[in-house]
Specification:
alpha/beta, 2 domains, two-stranded antiparallel sheet, disordered N terminus
Length: 346
C-alpha cells in the first residue's frame, strides 16, 4: 500500500503530536482544535517548506528528476505548491500520472506517502486503526483494582494507534507528497471521508479529538477515469488531464531514459507504439512500456525494428492475448511492407 507507518513512540510524544494533553489532565475537542502549539507548528512548517520560485524552475527541476512535464502539468503543479490545494490528475492508464507524484517527491526532496486505492478500501486501511491486540494485552496486564476509566484512558491513547497512509501524511513532521492512487476504484462513501482531509488537512478521531496537520502535504490524486468522481471532491482540487504524448514529446521522454538508443531506432519505436495505440485494444501501451521496449532493444542489439524484431519483442508493449493477435496481424503487415518498400527504393 504505501508507507504504512505502524510506528509506536512514547505516549507523551504521541499526545503532543495529536494535539492531546498528556494523560491525567482534562481535555476537550475545543482545546484540541484551537491548540496554539499546533497552529504555531503549521506556520513554522509553511515557512520551512521549499517551493519553486517560477514555472521554469519547476519544469527544469522535474526534468532533473526524470520527468518531462507538459506545460499544463507544470502549471498545475506550480499552483499546487503556491495555493496548497490538492491536484486531481485524470487520464488513461500509463500516461505518467503516478510518475508525476514521484517526480515531485524527488524534486522537492519530500518523502512519498502512497495510498493505493482498491475496491472495498475503508477508513481502517486508509486513516488509522487501533492496535486491538496491544490494547487487550494492556488490559490483561493492568494491576488489579484499577478502574475501567483509568484503563480506557490509557488504551485509547496515541501509543495504541496504528497510522495508515492518510494519517502518516497528516502527522508527518516534514512536508511530504501524498499520492492517492486510482481514486476511481473506491466508492462515493470513501470520497466523502476524504473531504475532511482535503479541505482542512485534519482527521477526527472520536477517542482523541482532531489531529491537525503539522505540515501541509502536497496531495496528488490520480484517476483512470473509469467512473465519474463526485463534484464535492473535484471542487476541492486543481484539475489536470494527461493523455498520451505526441510522437516528438514521447521521443524526448524515451531519449531521456534510454539515451544510448540511436535516434533513428527511437523514432521508429515511437512510431510503431503510436500505430499500436491506434488499434482497438484492451490496453494500449503505456509510456513506461515504450521505455522498457527501448531498453530491451539495447540488450538484444537490434539495429532496426522490422517485422521479425517486432514479433519477437511485441509482448513487452502488448499484454493481452487477443491484443497480440490483432497487433501481429495489422502492425506486423505494415512493418513488412515498410521494409519491402525501403528495399525497392535502394
Amino acid at each position: 500500500m504505501a508507507e504504512d507507518a505502524d510506528r509506536e513512540s512514547d505516549p507523551q510524544h504521541h499526545d503532543e503530536r495529536c494535539g492531546r494533553r498528556p494523560k491525567g489532565r482534562n481535555h476537550d475537542e475545543k482545546g484540541l482544535q484551537g491548540s496554539p502549539s499546533i497552529i504555531r507548528a503549521m506556520s513554522e512548517a509553511h515557512q520551512e517548506a521549499v517551493a519553486p520560485a517560477s514555472l521554469d524552475e519547476l519544469g527544469a527541476g522535474l526534468g532533473g528528476a526524470g520527468y518531462l512535464a507538459s506545460e499544463p502539468a507544470t502549471l498545475v503543479s506550480f499552483l499546487a505548491y503556491k495555493l496548497g490545494k490538492p491536484v486531481l490528475v485524470e487520464g488513461p492508464a500509463g500516461v505518467g500520472k503516478t510518475e508525476l507524484a514521484k517526480a515531485l517527491s524527488r524534486y522537492g526532496e519530500r518523502r512519498l506517502v502512497r495510498l493505493q486505492c482498491y475496491e472495498g478500501l475503508d477508513e481502517a486501511k486508509a486513516l488509522y486503526e487501533w492496535n486491538y491486540r496491544k490494547q487487550l494485552l494492556r488490559i490483561q496486564t493492568e494491576a488489579a483494582g484499577t478502574s475501567w476509566d483509568d484503563v480506557q484512558e490509557d488504551i485509547f491513547s496515541p501509543a495504541f494507534l496504528m497510522e495508515r497512509p492518510l494519517m502518516a501524511a497528516i502527522s508527518a513532521k516534514d512536508p511530504v507528497v501524498l499520492l492517492i492512487d486510482e481514486i476511481d476504484k473506491t466508492d462515493q462513501e470513501f470520497e466523502a471521508m476524504l473531504l475532511e482531509v482535503l479541505s482542512d488537512f485534519q482527521i477526527s478521531i472520536p477517542e482523541l479529538g482532531v489531529v491537525e496537520a503539522r505540515t501541509r502535504p502536497l496531495v496528488i490524486l490520480t484517476s483512470n477515469n473509469t467512473r465519474e468522481l463526485t463534484e464535492a471532491l473535484k471542487r476541492r482540487c486543481l484539475y489536470l488531464w494527461l493523455d498520451y504524448p505526441e510522437i516528438e514529446r514521447e521521443l524526448e521522454i524515451v531519449s531521456l531514459h534510454v539515451p544510448e538508443l540511436p535516434e533513428t531506432i527511437s523514432r521508429r519505436l515511437i512510431e510503431v507504439v503510436h500505430m499500436v495505440r491506434g488499434l482497438d485494444l484492451k490496453k494500449p501501451p503505456s509510456i513506461a512500456e515504450s521505455i522498457d521496449w527501448a531498453r530491451a532493444l539495447i540488450v538484444l542489439g537490434a539495429e532496426d525494428i522490422d517485422k521479425a524484431v517486432f514479433e519477437r519483442t511485441m509482448s513487452i508493449i502488448v499484454k493481452h492475448r487477443t491484443d497480440l493477435d490483432v497487433v501481429a496481424e495489422r502492425v506486423g503487415v505494415r512493418l513488412a511492407e515498410d521494409v519491402l518498400g525501403r528495399a525497392e527504393s535502394r
